[in-house]
Amino acid sequence: MAIVDITVIPVGTATPSVSDYVAEIHTFLKAYNGDIKFQLTPMSTLIEGDIKELLEVVREIHELPFQKGIQRVCTNIRIDDRRDKENTMERKLQAVQDKL
Amino acid sequence: MAIVDITVIPVGTATPSVSDYVAEIHTFLKAYNGDIKFQLTPMSTLIEGDIKELLEVVREIHELPFQKGIQRVCTNIRIDDRRDKENTMERKLQAVQDKL
Amino acid sequence: MAIVDITVIPVGTATPSVSDYVAEIHTFLKAYNGDIKFQLTPMSTLIEGDIKELLEVVREIHELPFQKGIQRVCTNIRIDDRRDKENTMERKLQAVQDKL
Amino acid sequence: MAIVDITVIPVGTATPSVSDYVAEIHTFLKAYNGDIKFQLTPMSTLIEGDIKELLEVVREIHELPFQKGIQRVCTNIRIDDRRDKENTMERKLQAVQDKL
């Protein structure tokens, strides 16, 4: 199980606002028919699943601003992939909260 | 108002677990006496405040694993700094949720 | 044409050194039979090509430390994907150097 | 000795081009009077020096697009900070090239 933390920045937008593009990503994720979990944070979107499927989802998400006429996209991705333990978003939060 | 999204990865730990180091960051942030808000996510820590103060906090957080004997730290930071509007974590989430 | 900027951090290594893992990535890239260009920098590996092929290469690179017994990998990826112009590593450098 | 790898993305530019802003960073760095080394890559700017000085330089670089009228800046920073060995850009490249 891996977790991806992704931000997609459209470059060359008329205004500083990008919430339309982030909303588009979450509309896509809600309609996505696969084995993932996802969460919106103030700074990015977190997606949990199998690494192969996650990178497929990343590719589709990265394309979304181009479909709205944007000519340049800067996407930033963190991957946390752990194979000795079940690495879910819930378990990672719990592991830290248990130590506070 | 700016928001920082930070991960601090200690390199050369005996095991794959880093939750001790993340808990240390949040113990520091809880005791921190300044004008910031912070939030733990499954993939990073989000901190909201004035950019100058945020970079000071980043420097102190980056040092924490060294104080526990780690010899190498890879820190990853996203900054979202918006000057035309009040750019809080709450407002950013709301801006997207209003469009879903 | 897109460019990926990737760092692959093995978590849980005995020592702070990761150059073995970076060398492994470049051995893979040298043997890779596809339409990409790549470059080693002091902080990451840059790879130029079609976005679909790049994300395939990312997946394979991300797997390499697991094949050497590592149990956790934190991979960080920047993608710069521009569709209005030919976005090569060479052209991007030139565009900046022409303005200095 | 630490190394910072920084990209500064202005959000809300009229066109997809950002080379003016990158050139501005390198004009700043050339005129900067301090103990750092820096290098332009096709995807970012690498800066080597003491971590405290580096974060000061990061703060100044992050401000530059605002001085040109941009209202939102997304800055992405990787820090590699190693304390058991002299961690220069040159030494890191050599450590990998020796293993190829």
Helix content of chain A: 25-40%
Strand order of the largest sheet of chain A: 2-3-1-4
Oligomer state of the chains in this structure = homotetramer
Cα gyration radius of chain A (Å): 15 Å
What's the rounded overall pLDDT mean of chain A? 97
Total number of strands of chain A: 4
Quickly count the helices of chain A: 3
Protein name (chains A, B, C, D): MTH1187 family thiamine-binding protein
GO cellular component, one term (chains A, B, C, D): cytosol
Organism (chains A, B, C, D): Fredinandcohnia quinoae
Domain Thiamine-binding protein (chains A, B, C, D): 4-97
Strand and helix map with partners:
The structure is a homotetramer of 100-residue chains.
Chain A lengths: L1 E10 L7 H13 L5 E4 L4 E5 L1 H17 L4 E11 L6 H9 L3
Antiparallel strand pairs in A: 1-3, 1-4, 2-3
Brief descriptors of the model:
UPF0045_domain (chains A, B, C, D), elongated, MTH1187/YkoF-like (chains A, B, C, D), alpha+beta, four-stranded antiparallel β-sheet, Alpha-Beta Plaits, 30% strand, homotetramer, 100 residues
